Amino acid sequence: MRAALYDRHGAAREVLRVEDVERPEPGPGEVRVRVEFSGVNPTDWKSRSGATPRPMDGFQIPHQDGAGVIDAAGEGVDAGRIGQRVWLWLAAAGRRWGTAAQWTMVPEQAAVPLPDGASAELGASLGVPAMTAHVCLFADGPLGGKTVLVAGGAGAVGHFAIELAKHAGARVITTVSGPRKAELAAKAGADLVVNYREPDAADQISSFAGRNGVDHVVEVALGANLRLDLAVTRPGARIATYAAEATDPVLPVRACMTANVVLRFMLLYEVPTEALRRAASDITAALADGALTELPVTRFPLDEIAAAQDAVESATVGKVLVIPG
To answer: Which residues, other chains included, contact 182 with Cβ-Cβ below 8 Å and sequence gap of 6+?
Structure first.
């Protein structure tokens, strides 16, 4: 099969290459998937560059997310799954078989049935961003009737956080940096979209949230946004943050104490398996209900894998997908 791979860390155009490698055969509890689309995330270029290096078993086929069709099943897997359309999560976590190839191989629970009516493009866009959004939203309980603030509502995590929170019965406020991103966030269903660069951003959020304030925050930039978060949240609110900034923030401890705020830090690779399975189940249910939608998509052929990862590194708006073909 044709696969993109690397065997050392470095710049995309220096270490990524496309080669013919032996097609994997599924072992016990595994399925093999013919990949239609491979989703690219920031974690992929960070691992490849060495910014967040992970052990390699000889070589690494990148990308955690994707969508395709199961074409082989290992021992212990129901053969009836062969031919099933699926979306994939954490395909390359501790494994060499990422989704940037014509086939990938994953534990069967990481190949989740894709509901009828959900496109392969949408399926390949889920994985890391949708599961990150789910863990940030629901690790502290249900959200029905609560007010949620999603920072960066036009990003992939922010997009699915808006939609999952709305599906769960929350009121959703989101912050963005400009008109185009505001349009994307509003299309995702946010009840209020605020440009965080406006001087009265906190007043806009507080006015909408009401006297009780924001209950829960999904945060992409804790250091940059914590002052705003503390200004609009209620006492005892939860702030779940999922991304690291170039410089670690200095926490205003007294202000956090006064707010009685709970800070939750999460990295998807370290989330317990049961929470990941629950996230996959809830995301699929939301898909089946038509609650999740596609972001604008930029597509690259497999031979342009370096350009695809560079596009994500340069923060291209929307979702970047690779077509293994």
So the answer is: 154, 176, 193, 195
